[in-house]
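Sample intake — Histidinol-phosphate aminotransferase
Collected from: [Clostridium] methylpentosum DSM 5476
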Amino acid sequence: MHPTIKREVLMSRFLSERFAEIEPYTPGEQPQDFDYIKLNTNESPYPPSPKVLEAVNAEETAKLRLYSDPEVRQLTQEIAEFYGVRPTQVFVGNGSDEVLAFSFLAFCDADHPVCFPDITYGFYKVFAQLFCLDAQQIPLQEDFSVRVEDYCDCGRMVVLANPNAPTGLSLSTDQIERILQTNPDHIVLIDEAYVDFGGESCIPLLGRYPNLIVVQTFSKSRSLAGARLGFAVASEELIEDLNKMKFSFNPYNINRLSILAGTAAMNDKAYFEQCREEILSTRSKTKAALEQLGFQVLDSKTNFLFVRHPDLSGDDYTRQLRKKSILVRHFSQTRIKNYVRITIGTPKQMETLLEATKEILAIRRQEL
Ligand code: PMP
């Protein structure tokens, strides 16, 4: 299925009426061959830590006949140690998507609405529809930054991706603290999927704000998108609420091999640092090179760049790159339709992207 083609509108007469109008999330294209340079879904270009490969061995695979630990103790302990919190403050989900879903389910209902920016991770809107919530989408400012005042004392659960996607821009923890202070009776959920690439984590604020939930993922900085692992860090009470959702829905949500893979990845700090530094260095070189070619590149604290060029529409650039076997992500939302989101790959992949871009621009100039 091509990324821009929505799932067909086909439904049975049995589907509950409340789901008839839902517009499901459209994931980025996931070709199952390796014929592309894949810069469209913000995965790491580097393999998981070698310790992951050691942990997920034949012996452990044989144990797949047994259920996994519903308490996910080994991985929860490792995450808690890494962040200096108690294991009872950690909840592990099947990707951070599941953690987000359980959070919307647990903390919002017809009387408890939610708000998030108009341009942000597209899944928030889908969860709001799925759980029949009143969701306010607050416009980002002209420059795509979040206006903090818009979220102060707002009478709703606040959901903010920080750094935001697909813009890559981030708020400081001081700014988020103002949102936390002015919403003591509402949850403030900070989705830190990209925080390891230069953002400031809100985890140190947890002791002071019982309304804060921080959500992170293993999909980006820990090279484990395919293992489907995400987690929340919050007060023990909020974590128990999330557990209530999980144990009422899917108690064995994390499979045996992913528990091992996640534990090994969290444990290998040196490899994590090495991959992260490599990506930050490639990001700054790629940003400079794209600017040289006339692109406007937003300041990124993530493993992607959000870019636009005056001579190329976002859609056109994406299609031209695709013809050259390079996948990037384009969004059709009006405010960002001229932009393209490019994941930071290896230095070699980025060189190929830049060469392809030069060719596309040269042809475009001949046409103008
Ligand atoms: N939050 C944000 C902001 C994201 O971009 C993504 C990745 N698409 C996710 C959450 C979900 O990541 P995962 O389910 O792979 O942990």
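Post-analysis note: The chain has two domains: 17-46+270-367, 50-267.
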